[in-house]
TrEMBL record:
This is Solute carrier family 12 member 1. Keywords: Cell membrane, Chloride, Coiled coil, Glycoprotein, Ion transport, Membrane, Phosphoprotein, Potassium, Potassium transport, Sodium, Sodium transport, Symport, Transmembrane, Transmembrane helix, Transport. Belongs to the SLC12A transporter family. The chain crosses the membrane at residues 177-198, 210-239, 259-280, 301-320, 326-347, 379-398, 418-438, 545-564, 570-591, 603-627. The keyword Ion transport applies. Residues 824-851 form a coiled coil. GO terms for biological process: cell volume homeostasis; chloride ion homeostasis; potassium ion homeostasis; potassium ion import across plasma membrane; sodium ion homeostasis.
Amino acid sequence: MSLNNSSNIFLDSVPSNTNRFQVNVINENHESSAAANDDTDPPHYEETSFGDEAQKRLRISFRPGNQECYDNFLQSGDTAKTDASFHAYDSHTKTYYLQTFGHNTMDAVPKIEYYRNTGSVSGPKANRPSLLEIHEQLAKNVVVAPSSADRVANGDGIPGDEQAENKEDDQAGVVKFGWVKGVLVRCMLNIWGVMLFIRLSWIVGEAGIGLGVIIIGLSVVVTTLTGISMSAICTNGVVRGGGAYYLISRSLGPEFGGSIGLIFAFANAVAVAMYVVGFAETVVDLLKESDSMMVDPTNDIRIIGSITVVILLGISVAGMEWEAKAQVILLVILLIAIANFFIGTVIPSNNEKKSRGFFNYQASIFAENFGPRFTKGEGFFSVFAIFFPAATGILAGANISGDLEDPQDAIPRGTMLAIFITTVAYLGVAICVGACVVRDATGNVNDTIISGMNCNGSAACGLGYDFSRCRHEPCQYGLMNNFQVMSMVSGFGPLITAGIFSATLSSALASLVSAPKVFQALCKDNIYKALQFFAKGYGKNNEPLRGYILTFLIAMAFILIAELNTIAPIISNFFLASYALINFSCFHASYAKSPGWRPAYGIYNMWVSLFGAVLCCAVMFVINWWAAVITYVIEFFLYIYVTYKKPEVNWGSSTQALSYVSALDNALELTTVEDHVKNFRPQCIVLTGGPMTRPALLDITHAFTKNSGLCICCEVFVGPRKLCVKEMNSGMGKKQAWLIKNKIKAFYAAVAADCFRDGVRSLLQASGLGRMKPNTLVIGYKKNWRKAPLTEIENYVGIIHDAFDFEIGVVIVRISQGFDISQVLQVQEELERLEQERLALEATIKDNECQEGSGGIRALFKKAGKLNITKTTPKNDGSINTIQSMHVGEFNQKLVEASTQFKKKQEKGTIDVWWLFDDGGLTLLIPYILTLRKKWKDCKLRIYVGGKINRIEEEKIAMASLLSKFRIKFADIHIIGDINIKPNKESWKVFEEMIEPYRLHESCKDLTTAEKLKRETPWKITDAELEAVKEKSYRQVRLNELLQEHSRAANLIVLSLPVARKGSISDLLYMAWLEILTKNLPPVLLVRGNHKNVLTFYS
């Protein structure tokens, strides 16, 4: 490997065997250069790895005598990193450069620390060198002081060794589970419910072995598809706490996640009551048999249920480790109970069991029970609805995702294996019980077949028992009648009772843990602000104790109500709604084609996931249609609520990805459609600068682009590129957020350029996408043009010329007070800052009121120092001084009022349209669109058109006809026949005084002097130019007189913009035209289209 062979490299190190990346420290001390040159040994470099040894410190070798140079240079991580924390350090003794691959560079090798989120619990986040640092600086200019070496080694913005060790200590007591104890055990316990012991035999009796297997299989299809989708989502990134809520919210966004999270947490809380009541009912049945009732069955259930849920709460609050141990014990009991059943099926049956329908394995019983025999009111779907809740519980492991060591591995592995094991158990129990027990039995040992009696053809008859009377009267035994068949069949009956206890208590315990965990994750995301109280966690494991108490109260309430038969179908549908959204999340993420969708679990298909979602929705209606409707209504209501509240979160959901894909597809599709005049709409570039600095300009533009056209707020940063780009990038998000906050449907775009005109030229050419390209430039009138530098005027007029060159229409807006309120914003920011400091100081003083003596004073000054409350010194900034010295009360008040004038509803009045020149119709279209808006609907259009004095009526009729064909409503039409007469002397004198400072007056000087003045001041207005365009100058002055006469009281004036011919009209003369044309008038829009039709009367 080629290495840096500089003579000042003198380090030796022991190379590693398997590592590829090298990091070297160079000493550039001139005093040691000679020693380095005399040393003939080749240099060696310490090799580091970012593989399994990522947590080891970097060992740096040194020669004898130089150890003190490196005592503090230790690295926690993979490779030494250089970034913004490296500051120039100039020393006469020792200077160090960081090396990667043996070369002098700031580039860092790939490390996991660079990709972590801030505040990641899995480790510190590091900041890689920015592109600016790598691009702008040479590595040899980046030096590190030995005194700051261990800060450098840890990277900029990441905790040091001490902080890292503290984090490790904090994590030391946290209990994390593997895939077996954390997922497999929980899912198996939750799926194996009471249904396995007291309802499965009845289901086989009703549906038969064949349809029973189909019912189990259909349920397993739903859970397996959901498990596959969940596995794909889990392996597409780090999974935090929150289970189903976390998976759905991060995939589909807060709207879906927030709605399902709340009802899922509630469903788990109520499920605690359901399982505990199931346990209490079994205990009460045992008390009945032993005649040991306390009060009555209902109250006994309440008493036992309340005591049970208190005990379960104690186990949960004690910590996840105790809860996990309890789950393992319950699983062992459950497995013993299941094994006890299978053992019982091969133990020879006695006469008592035979009379109750149990004959061990018999082919005749299997054949008889294979087909269905539904009783009155039952059918395939009703039986399926009863069984399906037994297959749920696959989210038990995912719900404690925050307590798993590796959720990405544990959830898929544990969940899928649990589904497989429990499915085998369900199928085994169903087939075995169907092959051993007949459907009906009397329980009478004397109901045997007497010799000579005709057999009725049933399996029991063939085995010596006559249960024929069960056809005419109800019997108490057999698959159809006895829910305790498994106890009867088992080798030891009490073990089945223990299994029932285990199944109910384990499910209740799992739900009692799941509900608070999911609810805490939901509250932490602050989607429902009123629930923020429950986000707090306690202890090493961040236990949601407040959530436990809330779940306990909900469970107790439903236990005391004891009316769970009504609520049970809704709870089942809540779980199914979660399954449906998990499947839909997987489909949606795949369909969105986001590059970020890269699940490690590859056994999935988006269409299969969609099928799973549809299947879940169908099963919801099969189980209970009204419960499904209630579920959808609640979810829809919560979805609307979260959408309305718009929580400030950004999780990179597939909804965002699909929005992008849809927008891209639509934009591409739009490019295939040719432009048509009927579909023309103003698509505007608005030169607002920062959108908050010229709100009135943005408001008037937004008024005619909202919901109909493109609006881009543009800003040009002029100056050194590096500084401009930095400022531009730092404010981009803030300014777009301001637009969103103020409900302005516009985009923000900015460019950095050497001059203002170049920046605008770039925007005019490159803004937009496909057919969504700007066709109109909107700018504010340059009110201070007479005081502005010449370059600013040249740029201002130049961008108008550029717009016309690019065939883009131009709108210039003028209001009396001007648009720029940046000075007002500066004052407001300063006042807000001072107010915050005042409040902070008051809070500090209040906190220290109770303290006495010098200790309290010291604490006060200490806190004040932290708050950085210091005496404010006057600034030398000219703009601030100007603000402080001006009459803020009067001037700023008028400016603020003017800046909001287009936000208000306009009073009843008129919009006067002076359509003097045909520009394709833009001058007429913009005011028409304005009249369609609520704020302008009370303003009527008055049309003013130039014409001949002797043809006023004919011109008026012709214009009315044209407008009616355009289907544009108007209040009145005025034909102005005296536009071209000379203005009065006073008006013309005002114009002459206006341009006097900018005139060359070359006709009054000799030829040589005149030529010299032209060369020195080419921007001045020449006498020849003024004479050549005198008629046009007359027209502008005369138009102002007419506007003063006819439109002084209008709400808005829309006027054809005069065009300055390039090379003929000087910039100052053109500005004088605009000034005299719009002087002392209401708000004016000077409009000039690109002379292509934007109006048509053809259908």
